[in-house]
Amino acid sequence: MICASAELAEGGAGVRFDVERYGRRMPAFAVRYDGIVRAFLNECAHVPIELDWMPGQFFDDSGLYLICATHGAIYDPASGRCLGGPCNGRGLRSVQVEERDGGVYLTE
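The structure corresponding to this sequence follows.
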């Protein structure tokens, strides 16, 4: 289990976790947006650096967009699509998760 469902508030702090990708452990995160848990690799599409400015802080001040604290790239939390900034149309890479029985689980 990644976390309890209750740990993810709409537009609030996310939960960091690791996944195995490309033969190595990589940082990832889960957030709740539009009532659904979404998860992505914690890596800006512009330059491979983690997005959060403090652990678990992935949303901008409005709670509507994911933002790279280093570069200011803005992403759609529903899809990970780049909405502006230096990401030049490249989006976040999604991680498959599911929410069930009060928890959030990795499904890949």
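The mean pLDDT is 95.
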